């Protein structure tokens, strides 16, 4: 579909969304439909969109998977999953209609005939349900399944949009395990789908508060003049989880926290914090600015990695007073595993705006609290007044989750006859300010893909640039196989003390969540 016809789909009556194309009727084919992602996230997200009246009624979901199952069995399973994982309670009357828009297609991913019959099914659905030949293929499968699926989609002519309709593919992470594999994956994807058809999902970008970073920075005039090396001392980004590996050892053992969270989610958040203002909100203009940030990240020399990156793994401990096992004793984890479940990094962006402003990131599993936040620490006011009392710096905290919101720490005079200065907080909470629940990240992202808006999806060059940064660290770790630097931390603590030392060396400390 060309830009002009997408413009025609803009519905000016949709509150606050005048620049957004309206999602179009389409078939959503989910590969790996019997898996965890479809159960926990995708179908509940589609249901919630339907319940909120956001989903065009013709949208039809086709679960593509290997197991034998009837449409009715699949619908029942999806209903059960949605009742369990949906953000809002399932309303019977909505499910009744929504459930009828779900179908099941049984096939092996490598079986050519399964795709021929899928093509026929999709044509029939177009006629009966008005999906207009639009197809959204969702790859909720491990990357080693991509190649056969792509090959056969192409073989069945499903990768190409017909006149007046579109075909798009959403690819789930992990998008490669290093630069070489990401490039190879991109090559494989592009044998069937062009970059404009490819939507690489990073669900952090779909989080309301991540999107709000652009609004905070560029719709308010007061922050941007201060948003640079003259006024900012440093930035911290923390993504903490109380959860452990949760039965995902098969994937996690080969990934670790650096690949699982930093390469994608945390670097994406950093891009939003650090990018220049785009010329407009077009997908490519925003992504052009983001890719410049990743490109400007100072690459470590191999011998600098140990100084700037701390790798940790949880040992046994307790979360909320309950004992939990060490990572190495979790199911399917190698008892000598060197996988990182925690990483802390000190990095720099080598550009004019961020010169000499350290960025500290930490991410970990089995930490005492779950929460993701970004804090921007401003330089301290000069100490000349107020009897040279040492004051704390102003900190702008963006809470990505939970309790989404923004707070600003300032100094205030304590009431009383003396001049005592204490920090106070100005706090904005999404929940109470808007009185409206935020959609789940997957809801927003699915809708955007149906509307042809790729702004919140990672572009090929972003992903590849991110890997060039990560590869240096992974390679340095791998090269030190015999004397690896892996620090253990008790589950339920804030990671190894080396992570605190990383900041202490610079005279700073992690913000308490
Ligand atoms: C996923 C990672 O991408 O993000 C998981 O693979 C992690 O390991 C999850 O738990 C965190 O996402 P959220 O939205 O729960 O913060």
Would you kindly provide a written description of the structure presented here, covering whatever features stand out?
The two termini are 46 Å apart. Mean pLDDT is 92; it is low at 1-18. The chain is built from 15 helices and 18 strands. The protein is 36% helix and 20% strand. Helix 9 crosses helix 10, helix 9 (249-274) crosses helix 14 and helix 10 (283-296) runs parallel beside helix 14 (460-479). The strands form 3 sheets. The chain has a 9-stranded mixed β-sheet with strand order 16-15-14-13-7-12-11-8-18, with helices on both faces. It has a 7-stranded mixed β-sheet with strand order 3-2-1-4-5-6-17, sandwiched between helices. It is globular. It has helices spanning 3-8, 36-51, 71-85, 92-99, 112-129, 146-155, 179-190, 208-218, 249-274, 283-296, 305-308, 430-434, 441-451, 460-479, 497-504, and strands at residues 27-31, 60-65, 102-106, 135-139, 167-171, 198-201, 232-240, 309-315, 317-319, 322-324, 342-347, 359-364, 371-378, 395-401, 405-413, 421-429, 457-458, 487-490. It is of the alpha/beta class and 513 residues long. It binds 6-O-phosphono-beta-D-glucopyranose. 6-O-phosphono-beta-D-glucopyranose is lined by residues 203, 241, 260.
